[in-house]
Amino acid sequence: MGGSSPTGGSISVNNFYMSIDRRPLIPVMGEFHYARYPREQWEEEILKMKAGGVNVLPTYVFWSLHEEVEGQFRWDGQRDLRYFLQLCKKHEMPVIIRIGPFCHGEIRSGGFPDWLFAKPLEVRSNDPEYLRLVKRLYTEIGRQTQGLYYKDGGPIIGCQLENEMQHSAAPWAICYPGEQKDYTAASYNAGEANIGVEVQAMKATGAEMGDKHMRILKRMAEEAGIVTPFYTATGWGNAAVIEGEAIPVTAAYTYPFWDKVPQMSPFLLFKDLTREADYAPTRYNPQDYPSFCAEMGAGIQMIYDSRPIVTAKAAEGLMVRTLGSGSNGIGYYMYHGGSTPKQIGGVGSFQDEPMGMPKVSYDFQAPLGEFGLEGKMYRNLRLLHSFLTDFGDRLAPMETVLPEGWQKMTRDNRDDLRWAVRMKDDKGFVFMVNFQDHDTLRHDMTDLQLKLNLKDEVLSIPASGTFTLPKDESVILPFNLDMNGALLKYATAQLLMKIDDNGVEHYFFFAPEGMASEYLFDKATVKGKALYKPVAGFKSTFVLKTATDKTVKVTTLTRQQALNALKVNGRLLIADATVLPCEDGADLLCLGRNTVDYIVYPSRQGFKPQTATVKTVAPQFDVKQAGPRRFSLTAHLNVGGDLPSPTQVQEYFLRIHYVGDVAMAFMKGQLVQDEFYHGEPWTIGLKRYYNDLKTDPMTFYVRPLRADVPFLRDLPRETIPDFTNGPVVDIKKVEIIPEYRLQIKF
Questions:
Q1: Which residue ranges of the chain lie beneath pLDDT 70?
Q2: What DSSP element (H or E) covers 557?
Q3: Cα 597 to chain center, whole Å?
Q4: 537: Cα separation from own chain's centroid
Q5: Measured between alpha carbons, how far is 74 from 642 in angstroms, rounded to an integer?
Q6: Rounded CA gap, 321 and 8, in Å?
Q7: Which own/partner contact pairs does 517-521 have at CB distance under 8 Å and 24+ positions apart?
Q8: What are the DSSP calls for 284-333, one per residue?
Q9: At what angle do helices 128-145 and 81-90 cross, to 10 degrees?
Q10: What pLDDT score was predicted for residue 682?
Q11: How far is C-alpha 301 from the geometric centre of its chain's CA atoms?
């Protein structure tokens, strides 16, 4: 598969990895649904995603949002797909459009319009009437995307057809309490449809019809002008694919809300994903395609009955395991949360959500949340993305090698190290994970020394002594790494990035928690000493002279410094802030802090911190309680020209500290936001409501939390109240916090 651009660029895909402009790479794909986010804020969110290391943006085109009324397509406002794609082109963000017709996406009826339910046809089948309507949809999408494909110099590099065909379905929105749900699947598959991503051992009834349906969809997409270098199809759990014409993509969710009984997942255990995909068996041979994972559950949506909480360590461990297991494309569902817009529907607005989802919130505990704030795993994942940006071309051709006795690495085995190697020509990386979801009994792995049986040597890491891999840590270590002529035999530090330091290659590593940093170089490739044991920090830099008189610099950051680090315009920027890169510097976003220290390297200041400050702003607001469950908020928020500086405040966030069950927010009599309680304050971005708040209050209703609800098992123990006096609702504190925008130049 592949294609070319008008400027001579190229994309190619073989059965192992993707190349862009003939350079292997591992794409980092981050799902963001444009229709679930205000149009006015799209641009800044694209920049946040780029700063997080995302280099491909998949997005659903939800049929139900674009043709709510039959025959009347809407592409205005936050449904403006074409404008969104133009912004992606502006910021050089490649896009994969997921065109359905069925999407799932935890949206009502999986993205099927309400009026489709009233039609005498079989959805997701080769029913002529259904195909006629899908062709009309694809034609409209083709009109909106015309001229924006890679072949035209545009950002669209891929297209996903359908979603989980003959594997999963969504409940139709029309259902009644107590009845068995009716699913969005052809009748001959309806009884086999899963609600989520699961193992499905048996082939679907009429599997050949599903395969034919996928081929028909691809042909109709191409006829509508939707022509991309590659196509994808969800391939897990025996889903239908298009053999040889679309890349089957995989998934892994460690905290699935659809599991009736929470249990340890297998997705922290190393395997060879190029031979056996997750959620096997599959309808395709994994060795015929690169291992691309499109739905890695770094977060998860909550439903009423199940409120699993994903941690940053879980997300990081999942991705270290997946890369170490041979994945050459990583994709997050979701990378950026959003808010589902209200649908009017053609035969009525069915607001009931049979899956138990919030009506509006689609935060998904994503690396970037519903209102664009960093999630707890955003920076953890950026550590890996920075590594892939600079060294993915080396990793992509490397094969997974599992250690002797790897079969002992089971979910409940807490005594044997979980590790794997990816290597080619005796060069590679060691991947280790000491985390397991739904497990409280893990412990530090002590007295470790790895032995790699390479072609010409047995390499021990470290050469003498041992190291400890602390509980919940996940680590990637290099071996036989060529650093501009200096051969690094191994390091007990993790590779982060490489920069051009005034003509010198400068490598940045960081010290994993609980591990001492040690670097051993091949004596034949360097002049002077070959063993270094720096203490992590800005004073750790050492300079190498190679045997050919080249200079190489190495700096070992602390893990915390690395979490705050990214590359902007070729320079290292370290700041405890959300970063929006600019042509001549960056904008730093700080919630509740008007001052931030930062480091830009290389610069005149070197590693000496600099400080950016703006004036503080005191938001004016008033909260009126109306009984224990209800309150209203009125606010005058200084925005635009009212500020001492128009760029001083990026956003205001309302934060509600409460205990309850379901919390809802209303503007002008309409439900605009909701949340399921999970022990954390409810935070709402107010930028989208500035104009309405000038004239109307925002009102709130919180339902009491009962002792018998099924989701208490998911909540941290300290967040569960005392139910001695019955159900609990407690609105503890309401505050508005400015997010300051500080501009730096370099």
A1: 344-353, 639-647
A2: strand 551-558
A3: 27
A4: 29
A5: 35
A6: 36
A7: 517/491, 517/492, 517/493, 517/556, 518/462, 518/490, 518/491, 518/492, 518/493, 519/488, 519/490, 519/491, 519/493, 519/554, 520/462, 520/463, 520/488, 520/489, 520/490, 520/491, 521/486, 521/487, 521/488, 521/489
A8: S-GGGS--EEEEE-SS----SS------HHHHHHHHHHHHHTT-SEEEET
A9: 40
A10: 98
A11: 13
The Cα–Cα gap between 570 and 503 comes to 12
The span from the CA of 545 to the CA of 553, in Å, is: 9
State both tokens at 189: 């598959």
What H or E segment, with its residue span, contains residue 571? strand 571-575
| Local structure of 84: helix, strand or coil | helix
- In the numeric block, the tokens 């494909």 are attached to 149
Q: Where are the beta strands (DSSP E) in 352-470?
A: 361-362, 399-401, 418-424, 427-433, 445-448, 450-453, 458-461, 467-469
- By C-alpha distance, which of 309, 258, 370 is closest to 677? 309
Q: What is the DSSP letter of 114?
A: H
> Measuring CA to CA, which residue among 188, 165, 170 is closest to residue 114?
170
What pLDDT sits at residue 174?
85
pLDDT of residue 644: 47
Tokens at 448, concatenated = 């470790």
Residue 134 near residue 101, CB atoms below 8 Å? yes
Evaluated on CA atoms 585, 587, 590, 596, the torsion sign reads positive
* Those residues with Cβ within 8 angstroms of residue 345's Cβ, 6 or more apart along the chain or in another chain: 68, 113, 114, 115
Could you please report the per-residue DSSP string of 119-159? SSS-TTS--HHHHHHHHHHHHHHHHHHTT-BGGGTSSEEEE
Residue 370 corresponds to which tokens in the numbers above?
């519903």
244 CB neighbour count, 10 Å cutoff: 9
**What is residue 49's three-state secondary structure?**
helix
The pLDDT of residue 300? 97
> What is the helix (H) or strand (E) element at residue 385, kind and residue range?
helix 378-395
Sign of the alpha-carbon dihedral angle for 131, 133, 139, 145: negative
SS3 405: coil
List the end-to-end C-alpha distance of the chain, in Å, as a whole number: 41
CB contact at 8 A, 258 and 307: no
Determine the pLDDT at residue 347.
46
Contacts of 221 (CB under 8 A, 6+ apart): 99, 138, 142, 159, 161, 231
Contact 360, 340 (CB under 8 A): yes
As a residue count, the chain comes to: 746
Identify the pLDDT of residue 348.
47
- Rounded Cα distance, 273 and 270, in Å: 9
Name the DSSP letter for residue 6: T
Model confidence pLDDT, tens digit, residues 308-324: 999 999 999 999 999 99
Adjacency order of strands within the sheet including 10-13: 2-4, 10-13, 18-20, 23-25
State the Cα–Cα distance between residues 363 and 676, nearest whole angstrom: 11
133: left (phi over 0), alpha (psi -120 to 50) or beta: alpha
Dihedral angle over CA of 210, 211, 214, 218, nearest 10: -160
- Tokens (6 digits) for 482: 């060529």
So what's the pLDDT on residue 732?
Answer: 97
* Nearest C-alpha neighbor of 591 from the set 663, 678, 655: 655
Residue where the block lists tokens 């370099």: 746
